[in-house]
Design a protein that fits this description.
Layout (H helix, E strand, L loop, with lengths): L4 E7 L5 E6 L4 H4 L6 E5 L1 H5 L37 H8 L2 H16 L4 H5 L27 E4 L7 E2 H5 L3 E7 L2 H11 L5 H10 L8 E8 L3 H9 L1 H6 L9 E4 L5 H6 L9 E5 L5 E6 L6 H36 L1
Parallel strand pairs: 6-7, 7-8
Antiparallel strand pairs: 1-2, 1-3, 4-5, 4-8, 6-9, 9-10
């Protein structure tokens, strides 16, 4: 039996019209001219797909790398379309792109509003269990670029890639105070003292900070983002001035596709990523730290520091013969 309300999407060849009609009035579609293509879809069709119930879900260890396939670039995922008006106009009259957009809107309509909050009742919203070891460098995927304002420059936009590149980073991604507290179960000094000790040592390197902590506060809602901006002075007081440029407030750019690629199955839960100097995700954690996850994070950081030093030594050795050869000439 069909739901009382269904979504009727009419796609002529030149433009798109969206209508919400009652199921008893679907005869409107039959009166459409044959020249129009009429597609009737319902949110119930998507909900019929096999989706395990929250109480039946059990988090499993993360067995494969997560992230995007291509290295991030500054300016990507800013939420702003930089294309000229002509290209955007052509997309407006492109029937195939309307079909893709229709599918995205239908999936959004099928998603229950309180689904993520409901899932937090089971395992505290944990999406996966962090791996015991870091991912191999040649198999790891990339942390996407995000654009937002920082505590150091709230009036201008900054890229996360510029901050993550050439350093080992512990990146916390959250939306809301509850998710922020979850990420602190991995990185807070009282709950993970060995990690804080490594951070202090990594910030005192002669060649510059090697290990850093980055926070990304994602607030898609403009009103919540405005509240965070209002209390930015209080957030600054909770952090040292050196960390102001590593706190991002992001409103746009983190799409559902990026969330899926990064393993962010629940938008109300906090996530922690260990990112190397090439912006590759080498380790990840979700929700509250459990079991040996904190120890695994510390071990991963130590291993990355050793790998970075070996790579630096190998690079200096490879450059040494070249400099000698130039001097001999």
């Amino acid at each position: 039996m069909s739901s009382p309300f269904q979504t009727l999407l009419i796609f002529p060849r030149s433009f798109q019209v969206n209508r919400y009609v009652c199921s008893s009035c679907l005869r409107v579609a039959k009166r459409q001219p044959s020249s129009r293509r009429t597609i009737i879809t319902t949110a119930a069709q998507i909900l019929k797909k096999e989706d395990p119930k929250p109480q039946d879900f059990t988090p499993k260890p993360l067995s494969r790398p997560i992230g995007t396939l291509y290295p991030p670039k500054p300016g990507e995922n800013s939420g702003i379309d930089p294309r000229p008006w002509r290209e955007r106009r052509d997309d407006l009259f492109d029937y195939n792109k309307h079909l893709v957009r229709r599918k995205e809107l239908t999936e959004q309509a099928a998603k229950p509003y309180f689904r993520d909050w409901t899932r937090t009742q089971y395992h505290k919203g944990k999406s996966f269990i962090s791996p015991a070891r870091i991912f191999r460098a040649d198999k790891s995927l990339y942390f996407p670029n995000l654009v937002g304002s920082t505590l150091a420059s709230p009036s201008t936009s900054s890229d996360t890639t510029s901050v993550l590149r050439d350093r080992i980073s512990i990146v916390s991604v959250y939306s809301g105070r509850w998710a922020e507290v979850q990420t602190q179960s991995f990185t807070d000094g009282e709950k993970n003292p060995p990690l804080v000790a490594l951070l202090e040592q990594g910030m005192r390197q002669k060649e510059g900070p090697l290990l850093q902590k980055v926070e990304i506060n994602v607030e898609p809602d403009w009103m919540k983002a405005l509240i965070v901006r209002t209390f930015m002075s209080g957030i600054r007081k909770q952090r040292v001035e050196e960390d102001w440029g590593r706190y991002f407030l992001v409103r746009k750019g983190l799409t559902d596709e990026l969330r899926q690629a990064m393993g962010m199955a629940n938008s109300k839960v906090g996530y922690v990523y260990l990112v190397d100097w090439l912006c590759r995700i080498r380790w990840a954690g979700s929700a509250d730290a459990e079991g040996t996850e904190k120890e695994n994070l510390v071990a991963g950081v130590e291993r990355l520091i050793d790998g970075w030093r070996r790579e630096k030594d190998d690079g200096s050795r490879a450059l040494a013969p070249k400099s000698i050869a130039k001097d001999s000439r």
